[in-house]
Amino acid sequence: MAEREALQARNRTSNDKDRQALEEADGDIGLCGWFLVFVSLLLTLATLPVSIWMCIKIVKEYERAIIFRFGRILKGGAKGPGLFFVLPCTDTFMKVDMRTISFDIPPQEVLTKDSVTVSVDGVVYYRVQNPLLAVANVTNADAATRLLAQTTLRNVLGTKNLAQILSDREEIAHTMQSNLDEATDDWGIKVQRVEIKDVKLPMQMQRAMAAEAEASREARAKVIAAEGEMNASRALKEASLVIAESPSGLQLRYLQTLNTIAAEKNSTIIFPLPIDMFSAFMNK
């Protein structure tokens, strides 16, 4: 862990130096270059006011412009928002969108740690933090981030088993965000959020998990029923002990049962003998 943190610190230091070098580029184009700039400026002044529409550009609030003069980035870094001036013959520029961009990770077939094939997709939110690095260090920052997100998703899920993928989505998303943010730091991109959208299982695995869940529910139902029978048996035992202590209670219980039967069904019940007449035979 300590070695990894030290390596990350060295990488951040190197990245900071690269950013500083790009931002402080002096744009030294040589004597010939300055001569061409002077000629371009004269042509611009000679064709006024027509050339003014080619020299003045507008950058919106959420954009930044990187100006290249003879292929070199001008000193001062990104321009904008607002107006900026370019020479039509010597300068070119690129606009970089600084807003948060979201994209879907296509469903990825992943083999988990416990050898189960699942299909997982997600969504990534990122923004360009340093437009100089996004232009100078990578050809297409958006496409590179999309491809890196797909490979990172497969690599992270390959170290998890199926139960962890289904239950620890937040932890997986946080791990992916950290890995992506670290990898895209050289490109001037900040990964803000990663979310796992859906986890699709094979049909056989779905049926197996459904059967397992049903068996588990049946087992819990049987345990609950057995506990109910045991509690009922204990209650009946206590009731029998109470009745045994009071013989008249048994006769009252008998009369109450007859009353309940008569209330439920329209029938006539005849009991010619009192119940206490059997007590002599029971004692013998």
UniProtKB/TrEMBL annotation:
Domain Band: 54-213
Subcellular location: Membrane
Keywords carried by this UniProt record: Membrane, Transmembrane, Transmembrane helix
GO CC annotation: plasma membrane
A Pfam match: Band_7
Matching InterPro entries: Band-7_stomatin-like (IPR043202), Band_7 (IPR001107), Band_7/SPFH_dom_sf (IPR036013), Band_7/stomatin-like_CS (IPR018080), Stomatin_HflK_fam (IPR001972)
Superkingdom of origin organism: Eukaryota
Transmembrane segments annotated in the record for this chain: 34-56
Protein family membership: Belongs to the band 7/mec-2 family.
Protein name per Swiss-Prot or TrEMBL: Erythrocyte band 7 integral membrane protein
Source organism: Clupea harengus
Gene: stom
